[in-house]
Amino acid sequence: MTINCKGTLVDLTTPKVMGILNITPDSFFDGGKYKNESDILSQVEKMLLDGATFIDVGAYSSRPGAKHIPEEEELKRIVPVINLLVQNFPEIIISVDTFRSKIAQETINAGAAIVNDISGGKMDANMFATVAKLQVPYILMHMLGTPQNMQKNPIYKDVTKEIISFFAEQIYKLHQLKLNDIIIDVGFGFGKTNAHNFKILKNLELFKSLDAPILAGISRKSMLYKTLDISAQEALNATTSANTIALLNGANILRVHDVKEAVEAVKIVNQVSF
Questions:
Q1: Which residue from 1, 61, 139, 141 puts its CA 20 to 30 A from 103's CA?
Q2: What is the pTM of this model?
Q3: Cβ pair 49, 11 in contact under 8 A
Q4: What φ, ψ does residue 183 adopt, rounded to 5°?
Q5: Where in the sequence numbering do the catalytic residues fall?
Q6: pLDDT (tens digit per residue) in 193-213
Q7: Cβ–Cβ < 8 Å for 154, 200
């Protein structure tokens, strides 16, 4: 349960928190919020002070129905931000939220440490070879379809079994390429109905059979706010509740917008861990 991030060994036996930094104009919760260097640095400093171990930077909105942007636009958005963060926070561990191998290569070169791929290697045939060559931790997420169509009637015979099967196949391919630092993300809300999402949350412990750390990304998602008939802005309490369930069911990393509350959830759960 230890991953190597640019020479820093991070032990995931005690769950860690990953803070989200979206530098997109249209992300579902905080799109367009961090437009300039001052806002970006202020938010990242806050997340680090609140206890984030990782900062996940994304320049491509993957919300349902999001607009597709070309690789050049994603590159232009994200590389300057990676440079900015590394210059101002030398010890920072940056995860890059991208499904494109070129973005992965360029951002790791700029100082990022982890590649977080929403497509699990399905949207860029060169991604697995790239991360294997880079020898960086890789977050392997499950998504049915693409952000543009993933929520159009997703169907599974058995959602838990099918996702476990997907992970087993992709992990095997990565191991063949000699990449060992693999983290799995079940992809809450990515080609799943609310019923699918809650079944996966209930069964999260079953994914431990894959012998890989589990990342849970539930923060302020529609599975929470639609269930409660509230907005994403009102879903912090629901997020903490869902994160607590995820921790009790084996999550090793919480990917969140609200770091302080997630760190508190980890501390409380650790008091009753067994």
A1: 1
A2: 0.93
A3: no
A4: -115, 135
A5: 221, 255
A6: 999 999 999 999 999 999 999
A7: no
